[in-house]
Design goal:
Length: about 60
């Protein structure tokens, strides 16, 4: 499982093994100030990072910056 979050210390506290930091609390997987194309690139990058984290073997909590 991958936990995508805006507040990494909370994810660490609850014991998530794979943590992917996201953008901001009101918009974790986007940025409304970006144009449509740039926001799509941002979202794709975050999802790809999460998929990579899911495929990565970890031993303990790991934050994928």
């Amino acid at each position: 499982m991958v936990h995508m979050c805006t507040v990494v210390p909370i994810s660490l506290t609850v014991g998530a093994n794979r943590i992917v930091p996201t953008v901001a609390i009101p918009h974790p997987l986007g940025n409304p100030s970006l144009n449509r194309e740039d926001e799509k690139k941002l979202r794709r990058k975050l999802v790809e990072k999460a998929l990579n984290a899911l495929q990565t073997e970890v031993s303990g909590q790991t934050v994928f910056e």
